[in-house]
Amino acid sequence: MKITPATADQQDEARRLVRAMPEPAMLTFLADQLGVVNNQAQLLLGLCGLAITVTGFSGTHMIQAGPLSAGSMVGGIALILVGAVAVLRVLLRVRWVSQELSDEPADTASRVIAHRDRQQRQLGVAGVFVALGLAAYLLSVALAAAVHVGGA
User: Fold this and answer.
1) What is the helix (H) or strand (E) element at residue 118, kind and residue range?
2) What is the DSSP letter of 94?
3) What is the DSSP string of 40-60?
4) Residues 6 or more apart from 96 whose CB is under 8 A from it?
5) Is the distance from CB of 130 to CB of 83 less than 8 angstroms?
6) 50, 56, 113, 118: which sits with the fewest CB atoms below 10 Å from its CB?
7) 21: helix, coil or strand?
């Protein structure tokens, strides 16, 4: 994994952290922040799994509703899968706080902060794919419902 250097803002945040708390507390604080990012990734992955699971139960109804509904469902699931892969890339690229330790606490903090921010950006992109996929999936459900109600 290519490590990108910390930005000036990240370095400034790191210096403020070093001034605000002792090093052991700072390391715990930063590890907790990475845990929050991990929890966000797991939440997104759970949404992806839920959407895919529901498709197993209702997918046939959406396909039977016609090509527009079926296409919207397939497109939505495809976008959700892209989002899920992006989330998995974040979850599987583990970088421990202990791997970032340096003799200078501010250097350690700035590297961990850069990693946190990079993961957060990647999750933001994944979230967009998941949201677009869910929107397309919802359109498919609405189209199927309209066909079902209109045809009944």
Assistant:
1) helix 105-151
2) -
3) HHHHHHHHHHHHHHHHHHHHH
4) none
5) yes
6) 56
7) coil
Q: How far apart, in Å, are the Cα atoms of 8 and each of 44, 111, 114?
A: 30, 12, 10
| pTM of the shown model | 0.86
Residues 112 and 140: their CA atoms lie apart, in Å, by: 42
Which of 128, 139, 101, 104 lies closest to 47 in space, CA to CA?
A: 128
**CA–CA gap between residue 31 and residue 55 (Å, rounded):** 36
**Cα(82)–Cα(14) distance, integer angstroms:** 33
Residue spans of the domains in the chain: they are 54-152
Cβ pair 66, 130 in contact under 8 A: no
Encoded amino acid at 46, one letter: G
Q: How far, in whole angstroms, is CA 95 from its chain's centroid? A: 16
